[in-house]
Amino acid sequence: MADYRLAQAVDPGHDTRIFHFADSVFAHLPRADQRRWAQLYLQGLLTTPGRKSIRRLAAAVSAAPATASQSLHQFISASPWDWMPARQELIRLTGDHLPLRALTIGTVVLPKRGEHTCGVHRRFVPAAGRTISCQVGLGAFLATGEEDLPVDWRLLLPEQWNEDAKLRERARVPESVRHRPVWEHVLDLVDSVSTALPRRLTDRLPVVADLSEHLDAGRLLAGLERRGLDFVVAVPGALPVLPADPRVSRTVPGAAATPFGPVGARQFLRHHHVLPPRAVTLAAPGGRGRQLRVVSELVRLPGSCRTYRLFTEWHPAESRTPRVWITSLTGRRVEQLTTLAQAQAGTGLTVSLLERDYGLLDFEGRSFPGWHHHMTLVSAAHVYDRLLHAGAFGTRPPQNACDSRDRYFSARPKELTARW
């Protein structure tokens, strides 16, 4: 009870819309004090300038920061609350209020010191140009065409974390959580988002991901195909492909035609494409378009009868090697496919924004639940800001008003319009 009274000691000028949003997202928390600390942590992420350590958050939202800091730390790092219902609610709210264009997968690298923080390992990071100690996470982002909203996360555990019982116990890693390949994590994120969104949305929401550095990217393509989901995925240049027409044979100068066996995707586009490169103009900020040439061909994957389109930027005289993309959207124009592939760059910009403005890198705890709790609150802060900026609250009823959030977004529209 003392903690709950302390949570009331907040600047009376705070924006109550934050609390109503938090009430909806964290309605599943069983105790009133947990819901209140979720509200205050969220408020702190949105209002605290600079580094968002728990001490600074507590100072921003409480008149008794020392005690509030202890309670916020307990709520984030030690309290055993389930983060998945909150993320499912973020997915549903985003789908209700914003037009969705794609589900993108982004990677976050979180530098860490020491050896006991959950999932920490040494890795070469191209952006840093060196090997660092870090955590690596995968995020699911709902892209609208103007912005990407983070709605779910997975923490990648290196293989050495599978068997070290003492390390796992210190970091409170559940027994069921083990090292998994990236493609499995991606499918897990896709399933999570698909569960929360109506089928009419997931059926037309392509998955955009970059697995160009993962030799097992074909496993992801097979998983998405089994789920009946469309995709635009960057794959390794060595991914084996076949011509879409099985009757096509390979011709080599000075030799007879031979059956066309699997060829690496990059080699196929460079040496066996039939269609000439196509000029494409991509929209850019300020109205200036970026022009590039794209080459594409229809292909099959070994062991599959389905036809896909392979495409990449065309730079025959340069040493650079742009990403090779494969898509199930064979009926889309190359311009549309290239634009979808560029959504991956938008996800990277959102990650930078989360680092700069929403405290993505500022979690100081070591535990597996703590990491997920913090990432959930970071996502909630960003989604709140974007939905509010879009005028989503109090302006129109949700498209799928069918659960507990109706209390806040549609039950009493006149009152809520005034509050939101």
Descriptive notes:
By secondary structure, the protein is α+β, with helices and mostly antiparallel strands. The chain has two domains: 2-84 and 368-419, no CATH class; 85-249 and 259-354, Transposase Inhibitor Protein From Tn5, Chain A, domain 1, CATH 3.90.350.10. It has 15 helices and 14 strands. It has helices spanning 2-7, 16-25, 32-47, 54-61, 65-78, 84-97, 165-170, 182-196, 199-202, 217-226, 265-271, 334-357, 368-389, 406-409, 413-419, and strands spanning 102-111, 121-125, 130-143, 148-156, 207-210, 231-235, 240-243, 249-250, 258-259, 263-264, 278-282, 290-300, 308-313, 324-327. Strands 1, 2, 3, 4, 5, 6, 7, 10, 11, 12, 13 and 14 form a twelve-stranded mixed β-sheet that branches. A two-stranded antiparallel sheet has the order 8-9. 41% of the residues are buried. Mean pLDDT is 85; it is low at 1-13 and 395-420.
Fold topology:
Blueprint lengths: L1 H6 L8 H10 L6 H16 L6 H8 L3 H14 L5 H14 L4 E10 L9 E5 L4 E14 L4 E9 L8 H6 L11 H15 L2 H4 L4 E4 L6 H10 L4 E5 L4 E4 L5 E2 L7 E2 L3 E2 H7 L6 E5 L7 E11 L7 E6 L10 E4 L6 H24 L10 H22 L16 H4 L3 H7 L1
Parallel strand pairs: 1-5, 5-6
Antiparallel strand pairs: 1-3, 2-3, 3-4, 6-14, 7-10, 7-12, 8-9, 11-12, 12-13, 13-14
Helix pairs in contact: 2-3, 3-4, 3-13, 4-5, 6-8, 6-13, 8-10
